[in-house]
Design brief:
alpha/beta; Rossmann fold; 2 domains; 8-stranded mixed beta sheet; 10 helices; about 30% helix; globular
Length: about 350
């Protein structure tokens, strides 16, 4: 009986010791691509700066409390302003993230990125990544040398989201300005303000403040592992051009895009994706020649409905629904890797 009591007492002490041990911090990989968040300026109080000047280790050192919330390591994929983001970087980034996400030693991934094309990169990754682990993009509107630089706190919050099990299975996220957006919904709405990003149709995925997050919803459309798109053996993407529609626009730009080798054309149309008669006729010629035409809108809010003012069935066009022109281009490029049938591509726009 005495030995039994000693054994029970020892077991109780062991359980107490285990309970007092801190939980193992999540392992988060930060992949840097450049952007304003890695930018520098000669002065801390000036508008002009150069993107992509500091490396990932410098970004990590600028947030010394990161080691309190995650085991962080960094990797540099590129160091460019996001106006110079390219297919080459996209493919390299997607393949590397899929590789990292497959490792049991990685719990989440953060991508630092310029804000100019962040929504396009995020949506591209939303369609081609095959993981439920959190993948979170972040950036900043002020360079690293600026007064009140917003990059360090954005990185801190993004790392917290990437290490949070509650963020898993919500697709690719963007954590910026204390908000958590879905890659499908986010768009840049202001040229310089720190609250530039919005999710105007569906709203936020959640919010985060100093590493503490709350989540409101999951994405409505299918994403990541639910999509058929893969780039593992892909070395290039089909050419798709965006044409901005304006008053009295001629059909010449459409003809020029076709002649230049575009496999698809996305229009940033007026209103509900409309265009002048000359453009409509040129797009009809393009569609007859096998070029896939997607009607989107230059208007920030609203859906582009099918067969409203344009007879999409007759013209063999695709309506972009809620996707803006840049994101419509992303989806069309991936769709064209498997089909050029407008009816099948319309189903993809309805689904993803």
């Amino acid at each position: 009986m005495i030995l039994g009591r000693k054994a029970l007492f020892a077991a109780a002490l062991c359980c107490c010791a285990l309970a007092q041990q801190p939980a193992k911090l999540p392992a988060v990989k930060i992949i840097a691509t450049g952007g304003t968040i890695a930018g520098e300026a000669p002065s801390s109080a000036q508008a002009g700066y150069t993107s992509g000047q500091v490396g990932v280790e410098t970004l990590i050192k600028a947030v010394p409390t990161l080691n309190k919330i995650a085991r962080v390591s960094g990797e540099q994929i590129s160091n460019v302003g996001s106006q110079d983001m390219s297919d080459e970087i996209w493919l390299k980034l997607a393949k590397r993230i899929n590789e990292l996400a497959a490792s049991p030693d990685v719990d989440g991934i953060v991508i630092t990125h310029g804000t100019d094309t962040m929504e396009e990169t995020a949506y591209f990754l939303q369609l081609v990544l095959k993981t439920r682990k959190p993948v979170v993009l972040t950036g900043s509107m002020r360079p690293s040398t600026a007064l009140s630089a917003d990059g360090p706190l954005n990185i801190y919050n993004a790392v917290a989201v990437a290490g949070d099990p509650q963020a898993a299975g919500r697709g690719v996220l963007v954590s910026i300005n204390d908000q958590i957006h879905s890659a499908h919904d986010i768009t840049k709405a202001h040229t310089t303000a720190t609250d530039t990003f919005m999710s105007p149709y569906r709203g936020l995925i959640g919010a985060t403040a100093y590493g503490v997050s709350q989540y409101y919803r999951y994405p409505f459309k299918k994403f990541t592992a639910e999509t058929p798109f893969t780039v593992e053996s892909v070395s290039s993407l089909p050419r798709v051009d965006i044409l901005y529609v304006y008053e009295d626009m001629p059909g010449d730009p459409v003809d020029a895009a076709v002649k230049a080798g575009a496999k698809g054309i996305v229009t940033a149309g007026v209103g509900d994706g409309n265009m002048p008669k000359a453009v409509l006729e040129a797009l009809g010629r393009a569609a007859s020649a096998g070029v896939v035409v997607v009607r989107a809108s230059r208007v920030m809010l609203g859906f582009v409905g099918r067969n409203v003012e344009v007879d999409d069935d007759k013209m063999n066009f695709v309506a972009s629904e809620e996707l803006n022109p840049p994101k419509a281009r992303v989806l069309l490029r991936l769709a064209l890797m498997t089909t050029s049938d407008p009816k099948q591509i319309q189903k993809m726009f309805n689904t993803y």
